[in-house]
Each structure stands twice: as C-alpha cells, then as structure tokens.
Design goal:
By secondary structure, the chain is of the alpha/beta class. Helices cover 46% and strands 16% of the residues. It contains 8 helices and 5 strands; from the N terminus they run E-E-E-H-E-H-E-H-H-H-H-H-H. Helix 1 (35-42) packs across helix 2 (60-69). The chain is rod-shaped.
C-alpha cells in the first residue's frame, strides 16, 4: 500500500501528516524545519511514500533540495491553489494544513512548482549581491564627486578603473581630502563590475 505525506512548514517546526491510499491518517508528527530532520522522519521504512507535498514558501527551496537529495519523492506545490483547497477547513492549524496537503497528494490535486538546483540558486544569489554592491559603488562615486566639487575639484569623465587614479591626482598634496576619499572609495573589483564565473561543468542558468 502506498502512502502520501503533507508538510506544513513554519520557521521553527514542520507539521507532517502521512495518509494511506484510502485517506486514513497513519501518522502525525512535528519535526524541526531542517532537511535532515524531515528526511529522517520520512525515510521510515514503514511508509511507501508515493508523493510528499511541500507548499512553496521562504524555506521551500532549501527543504526541497535536501529532501530530493535524500531520494524522497517530494513535490513543491503552488501556494494559491493550496490555500484555496485548504480554506474550507474549520479552525485552521498547522496540523490540519498538513492533513489537507497529504490528501492533495493522495488524490493528485495540486499544481507543481519548478524548483531551481542549488547551483542555480547560488548563482542567482551571487548576481543579486553583485548588483547591489555595484549600485552602492556608483552611489559612493557620486558622493565623492560632490564632496570634491565643494573644494573646486572636478573629477570629469572616467572609467571604472580610472576613477581611483583620477581621485588620487586631484587630492595629491591635500592629505585631509586624501584620507576622506581613501576611506570612501569602493573596492576596484566592485567598481569594475567583475563577477566570478559559475562552477565549471554545471551549465546552470540563473533563470
């Protein structure tokens, strides 16, 4: 007999419900919201899990990746469709939501959501962080231009690499300004917009 599991995730704990093919609840439990703890609970040989439901949310990518790597048949499901299915419940609780998701898995009534690989997630996070740093670097350069303009010093048109050279030329012989601009200047690799390449052989696209 196959079994189906539903998980209702919160930041600290995840409610798990396991039902059989007839819809009868076979087990309910709470575990820490961590891939290893969830995998340990779901890998019990008592259960022949056909599908494991995981609602899309802030922790879903991390939890999904961990459960999938553990060889479990986890499916990330669309949030709005899930909420529409669960809203008929009276006195909503994490435990009841886990029951509802388990039943959705049993009757195959869900909308799956694509989850990126961990490599793609890391790549996306890297690009997001780099973009943020580049925006900050541009803002700092503009502030330095404005600061020097107050002293009659004009930076003019420069490239990303030439900016630092031009600043040093302008403040040469003016140590008070040299100290200020040196402490404000962004690192050259950030100002230049260089981004480390993705790991070799992955071929992953940031999406």
């Amino acid at each position: 007999m196959k079994h189906y599991a539903g998980q209702d995730v919160s930041p600290k704990e995840t409610s798990i419900c396991i039902v059989d093919e007839m819809g009868s609840i076979r087990r309910e439990l709470k575990v820490t919201s961590h891939p290893e703890d969830l995998a340990r609970a779901l890998q019990d040989p008592t259960w022949r899990l056909g599908r494991i439901g995981l609602e899309a949310g802030p922790l879903s990518q991390w939890l999904f990746s961990g459960l999938a790597q553990a060889g479990l048949p986890v499916i990330c499901i669309e949030t709005r469709h899930t909420k529409a299915f669960l809203k008929a419940q009276v006195n909503k609780t994490d435990r009841k939501d886990a029951r509802g998701i388990a039943q959705m898995m049993r009757v195959n009534l869900f909308r799956p959501v694509h989850i990126e690989t961990l490599t793609s997630q890391h790549r996306r996070a890297l690009l997001t962080a780099r973009k943020l740093l580049q925006e900050k670097a541009v803002a700092i350069e503009n502030d330095i231009r404005g600061l020097l303009r107050n002293f009659g010093l004009k930076v003019g048109m420069t490239g990303a690499v030439g900016f630092d050279v031009r600043i040093r030329e302008l403040v040469d012989g003016r140590p008070e300004l040299a100290d200020i601009t040196a402490s404000c200047s962004p690192p050259a690799d950030v100002a230049g917009g260089t981004v480390p390449p993705p790991p070799e052989g992955t071929g992953d696209h940031p999406g």
